[in-house]
Amino acid sequence: MSFELAGIGASPGIAIGPALVLEPATLDIPEYRIEAAAVETESARLRAALATARDELLLVRDAIPGDAPQETRLFIDAHLLMLDDSALRERPLRAIREEGRNAAWAIHHERERLLEIFDRMEDAYLRAKREDIIQVTGRVLRHLLGGKPPLARAGEGHIIVAEDLSPADTVLMKRDRVLACVTDFGGSTSHTAILARSLGLPAVVGTHLGTRLLRNGDTVIVDGDQGILLVDPDAAMLREYQALQKRRQRRRRLLEELRDLPATTVDGTRVLLRANIELPDDRDFVHRVNAEGVGLYRSEFLFMNRPEAPDEEEQFNAFAQVVSAMGGAPVTIRSLDIGADKSLRSEGMEENTAVNPALGLRGLRLCLRRPEWFRPHLRAILRASALGPVCLMLPMLTSMGELRQAKALVRALQDELCAAGLPFDPQMPLGIMVEVPAVAMAAAHFAREADFFSIGTNDLIQYALAVDRGDDDVNDLFDPLHAGVLAMIHNTIAAGHTAGIPVAMCGEMAGNPAYTELLLGLGLREFSMYPGAIPEVKEIIRRTRIDHAEALAQALLAGDWRDLEARRE
Ligand code: PEP
Ligand code: MG
Asked: What percentage of residues in the chain have a pLDDT greater than 90?
């Protein structure tokens, strides 16, 4: 039976294919013995995890849409029954009490025992129930271990359905030719959504129920524009979406004709369109759309999905590949921005356990505390600057002190390279991301010491509006047009221009065609975005008149929305 599931359209496009539902089956299960004195606490932890899993399932059951098939409800009921089953409570509790086992190991052990029993069953229906055991125990384990499910298997030609995907998981999809991804959680500017867009992978996030309602092999239509999923579509729906896919392809081909035309407004104002990239291989996307260099190279992705951090040489090679491939167009390398939702599992680069990681040691703050990471990283960037124009950009900068500290370190490393006879560009510009509201408000102050600004609207909006960019529950409040946000963007651009330094924008707002005219009106002349967005933004720029754009920007800054509303009608 067909049904529809709504979420947030996080990456545009239509995909049709079989679902691959990722279960949290491969969490690392720690095994250790506990002291007799800790038995009560450990037992209580297990009971609490079971109770939380149960509450969660009850919520899911209440939220099942009216038109979902009856089996969906039965499926959740079966999981609830399993959670109440004494095997899943009594044996693990006994293992904690009598053998001094840790709770996660005890649940894991019980799962293995039950799976063995089910595997031996003759009845195919009962044997199929092993999936349910994996899902239920996985849910309890996740509460015990506090982790997100890692991407266990990736499926070529599949639509990945997961509770959540870390940015590191999403990188793997580049390799695995996944058709689309769907997650229960996540906002439209989370790093996972950003990556999906840069991969050209349609994505719907925040469905809440995707992993509960979909089964492996279900045919799914993912509509990343509207943020909906159609499960088990009938023939008419399939035809409609196949026709839509064809129309989109035709439009893409039309836009490709703009590839070699300049991004110039009707009245002749030249605009720079640059690309945001995550890995060296992305340089091919940059050429495909003819971007004028790289406006944001998110260097932290080099550090993901590996047991050890890359050394200076490996980093240098990665940067050198991109710089050389750009044929003289500038490459803005952002120094490591790890922390918050971009955690690493590399040895020696431990997980962030801050109370609030988005406000904790992240980006530049973390790097300044860890010179053993920062020094080889900066040396690799400096060395790459000998091969072509490179700009160094500092993320999450908050204070002038941090900027001065980073500059002093760069100067010291330049002296080191000089002494070692290694080449670098002594004029390499050193700029900052404007993504902390206080920096946007005091932009004139920072413009005196930074060589350029790049506005990171993803974090700027998150911090200005107190809205977590990765939380689907507040995604509707993430508003780039909020008067406070516009005032900060305007102030940053004006301050940069007054000081005579370049001002770019590399947050997702720059790649959303809905904001192109407004940003031009606010004075922005340098946009950096995921490569796939460039053709559409270029098309709008080529239709824009700067005086009209300025009138729109002035009206919005003054709180007058009539012009914008009229355009939307
Ligand atoms: C931003 O915050 O807008 C930005 C471009 O950086 P990131 O999305 O990597 O945090
Ligand atoms: Mg940011």
From this structure: 61
- Which residues are CB-neighbours of 476 under 8 A, at least 6 positions away? none
For residue 65, what are the β-bridge partners?
none
How far apart CA 30 and CA 28 sit, in angstroms, is: 6
- The lowest-confidence range among 136-150, 175-189, 219-233 is 136-150
Residue 298 Cβ < 6 Å to ligand 1: yes
Position in ligand 1 atom list of the atom nearest CA 191: 8
Confidence (pTM): 0.76
Neighbours of ion ligand 2 (CB under 5 A): 435, 456, 459
- The number of angstroms, rounded, from the C-alpha of 19 to the middle of its chain's C-alpha atoms is 21
3-state secondary structure of 180: strand
Identify which of 85-99, 129-143, 246-260, 340-354 has the greatest average pLDDT: 246-260
CA-based nearest residue to 133, from 90, 71, 181, 82: 82
Q: How far is CA 83 from CA 125, 135, 145, in A?
A: 20, 11, 18
How many CB atoms sit inside 10 A of residue 98's CB? 9
* CB of 456 sitting under 6 A from ligand 1: yes
Q: Which residues are catalytic?
A: 191, 506
